[in-house]
Amino acid sequence: MKRLTVDISQKEHKYLKMASAKLGVSMKEFVLSATLKKMEELEDEWLVKQAEETLRRIKSGEEKIFPLRSKRKSKRKKEI
Q: N or C: which end of the chain has fewer CB within 10 A?
């Protein structure tokens, strides 16, 4: 296990404690849940940007694509 210490104001602590209590979870559970959700959102954004960049390179001709069917057919011919 690793430990993370975060300094927050008294007002922020009170708000976090209240929100956690309303949801019936500990402050740790609340913070971890919110953090993991944000990390997933960021990962989704990064994947979208990566896909957009790949599509741009394909459209511009910088990157080539090969249809899956042509790869399968050529592989089958080699096996025979």
A: N
